[in-house]
Amino acid sequence: QESVYRAGVFGRTPAVPTDFATLEARAEKASSATAWAYVAGGAGEGRTMRRNRAAFDSWSIVPRMAHGNTTRDLSVDLLGTTLPAPVLLAPIGAGALMSPDSDVKIARGAAAHGVTYVFSNQGCNPMEECAAAMGDSPRWVQLYWSTDEDLVDSMIARAEAIGAGALVVTLDTTLLGWRPMDLNLGSLPFSQGIGIAQYTSDPRFTEIVRERIANAPKQASEVTLGAIRTLISMTRNHPGSFGANLRSPEPRAAVETFLDIYSNPGLSWEHLATLRERTRLPVVLKGILHPDDARKAFDSGVDAIVVSNHGGRQVDNAIASLDALVTIREAVGADPTVLLDSGIRTGADVFTALALGADAVLLGRPYMYGLALAGEQGVAEVVANVIAELDLTMALSGTADLAAITRDLLVRDSAR
Ligand code: FNR
């Protein structure tokens, strides 16, 4: 906190704005209309996205004074690893819309502070490249449940091989939500080949693509593995270069295959029950909102859940993530590991989420806006700012460590 704050006071010019509203406005200016629609957009009328923020506004922090603390400990033990702060970077796909080689830059920005980066299954760099950019810094791997069970196993094997600390299975995107901003522009990154690098770098995926092309004689005579591998580099870039290549059969088949198999609309607890014997990694289920689903998750033996409405991108008019956290914490009790995302914008938000029972939070769009404005440095600064403000909020509220951030430091603003 000190270093960020003092540098600011003594005239350091930050690479990215330190408040969210300016950060967002500048990022919008720096982005194309289609990129902005995808990243900033929400489902339907945007009610859930607004509600995520309104939920934070509906709680007030009641700071305690004269507590005598001069230092704070922000560290947290999460699934067997001690992390420097209770802030992780959420898995975000199609990041190349904001900056080429997005996921490697994000990986470096996260590693600069030792915070966990959750690699998206729809990332723009293969997870092996991201891991290599992070050294020993913690990384988790997020998975959408493919309709191809061998692809599920292949992704899990890769996650284990790159030293992932957990496997995060996202449950809320068995189908893509109703996203008017993208629909109005007639644009989705995947149709341009953006966000499929995790697939085109996968041996099982390339096998499926080759089989498909072989079985569609009108499309192609011969496809080599090398041709498909070249997709990896294409999928890192902005739209355009890849789009032009969609006329040739290999990239086109890869995109179509991706769209067909990336997620299983029939995903059930029976699928999830197989995870325990398929991986030795801790399992995290992301996208839980109902208390009964939270109970089911822990009854089925998962290690943690992420209470999340996907940043308001899936079901419009869904419950705010923070409101769901309250009922879920009540339902599962104090012990299980419960994380939260959707709507976290500041350090004070992190404080509020922890006071309502979250063990840690995931930061979403804010770090993408940092990426859009200043690449790796922008990501690192956004993360540093959120952690610095959390530290300052703790200092000024009389909490020396995360365990001291309790519900009695909040009141609900019912009058607003
Ligand atoms: C996401 N999110 C997401 N989640 C996931 O499990 N896998 C993914 O590939 C993606 N992709 C993705 C792309 C974009 C552009 C956004 C904005 C979000 C959801 C993400 O992990 C997280 O739940 C939300 O971003 C949290 O909400 P806020 O902080 O952005 O409001």
Automatic annotation (TrEMBL):
Domain FMN hydroxy acid dehydrogenase stretches: 12-415
GO terms of molecular function: FMN binding; monooxygenase activity
Keywords: Flavoprotein, FMN, Monooxygenase, Oxidoreductase
Binding site for glyoxylate: Y38, S120, Y144, R179, H310, R313
One Pfam family, short name: FMN_dh
InterPro entries: Aldolase_TIM, Alpha-hydoxy_acid_DH_FMN, FMN-dep_DH, FMN_HAD, FMN_hydac_DH_AS, LMO_FMN
Active site: residue positions: H310
Keyword Signal: no
Binding site for FMN: P91, I92, G93, Q142, T170, K286, S308, D341, S342, G343, I344, R345, G364, R365
Cofactor needs: FMN
Stored PROSITE patterns: FMN_HYDROXY_ACID_DH_1, FMN_HYDROXY_ACID_DH_2
Family: Belongs to the FMN-dependent alpha-hydroxy acid dehydrogenase family.
This protein's name: Lactate 2-monooxygenase
Source organism per UniProt: Nocardioides marmoriginsengisoli
Lineage, broadest ranks: Bacteria, Bacillati, Actinomycetota, Actinomycetes, Propionibacteriales
